[in-house]
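#random but structural
TW: two for the price of one
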Amino acid sequence: MKDLIIIVIVALIFVLALAYVIRKKKQGVKCIGCPYAKDCAQKSNSCSCNTK
C-alpha cells in the first residue's frame, strides 16, 4: 500500500510539472524557471538566462 501511495504522489508531481511547462510555453515563455524569462526572450528573441 505504501508503494502505491508513493507512486501516485510521484506521478502527480510529474503531471503537475508537465502541465506547468505546457502552460508557460503557451504563454510564450522561452526559459521556464528563469525570473526574467518573458522579458529577456521578448527583447532579444533568444534567452540568455543560462549563459554566464
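TW: number two ↓
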Amino acid sequence: MQPLINSNKARLSQVYFAYFTILGIVSNYLGLYLHSLSLPPSLIGVVLAVMTVGRVAGPSIWANIRFFKNSPEKNIQLGCLFALISFSLIFLIGHQHWVLLLSLGGFAFFWSAVMPQLEAVTQFILKGDSTAYSYVRLWGSVSFICLVIIAGWLFEIFGIVKSIEGFTLLLLALLLASTFRLPKVVPVSDTKNRQIKVRDKLKQRPVQIFLLCSFLLQMSFAAYYGFFSIHLQSLGYTGYQIGMMIALGVIAEIGIFLISGRILNHFNLKTLFVFCLAITAFRWFALGLWGEQVFVLLMIQLIHAFSYGLYHVASQKFIHKEFPNQSQAKGQALYLSLSYGVGGAVGNFLSGYSWQYIQQQTYLLSGTCVLISALIAWLFLNQHQN
C-alpha cells in the first residue's frame, strides 16, 4: 500500500483532487457568495470581471517567470501559497469592497496560474501517456462531485458565506500541502528543444487551428455554465432533478477518462477533435430545441464525456507533442488562457446579452459557434496529426 500511495500517479492525483474541489466552488457558488454579501449587481459584475482578467493573465504571466525554470514544482508551490495569502485577506481585513477586489482578483490570478504548470509537470512525469494522464485527471472530476455534495450540507449548517470562505481557505491549504508531494522534475537541457519559442509555434497552422477551435468550444460552453440551471427550471425541472443532471455530466466525464487512453491509441487527433466538436454542436442544438424531454436531456449530459473529457485529453496529447520539454508550461498557459480564459470571458459576455433577449435560443447560437469550429478542424487540421 505504501508504494502505491507514494507513486508518481498518486502524488499527482492528490494535487488534481485538491485543485478541482476549489474549481467546484468558483464555478458553482461564487455568484451566490457575492450575492449573499448583499453586494449590488454592478459591483458583483466588477468583481467577476477582475477575476476573469486574473484568470486570463495569470497563466501566461506566471509561465514566463523564469526564476524557477529548473524546478517547476517550486513554481506551483509558490502560486498556491500566493493564492492562499490573497484569499486570506478577506479573513484578515473584512468584506470591504476594495478588499474583495484585491483578494479575489489576486486569488484568481495565482490559482489559475497553477494549472498550466501542473499539467506541464504531469505530462513530463507521465511522458505523454494518455492512459496514465486520464487516470490521474479523473480524480479532479471525483473531487468536483464530492464538493457539490458536501457544499449543500455545509450551507445548511453554517450558512453560505461562512461555508464558502472557510471551505475555500481549508482547500487552498490542502492544495498547498499536496504540492510538496509533487514528483521532482528535471528539465531536459537538449539544445534543440530549448530553441523552441512559443511565438514560432504560433505561426504554425496546426497550432493556430487548435487554439481557435478550443476558443470557440469554450465560448460555446458559457451559456451552459451560466444558464443551464435557469433553463431547466423554466422547463419545469425540480432542483433535485437539475442537480442529478449536472452530476450525470460529471460522471460521464469520469467514465471517458477511464477509457480515453485506448481511444487515443486507435484514432488520430484530427478525427477526435472533429468528432468532439461536432457532437458538442448537436448537444447545444438538442438542449435548445428538445430540452424538456427527459430522454434527450439524459443524452445531452452523457455527451459531456466527449465535449469536455475526451477533448481535454486529446488537447493534452496535442500540447505535449507541439510544446515539448521546457516549452510545455508556456503551451499549457497559452491553451488555458485563450480557451478557458478569453473564450470563457467572451462567451459569458455574449451569452448574457443573448439570454436577456432570446433565452433558450442562445443554445442554438452556441451550437452554431462550435459547429463552425468542427468545420474548421475538419478542413484545416492535418489528417495525420497524432
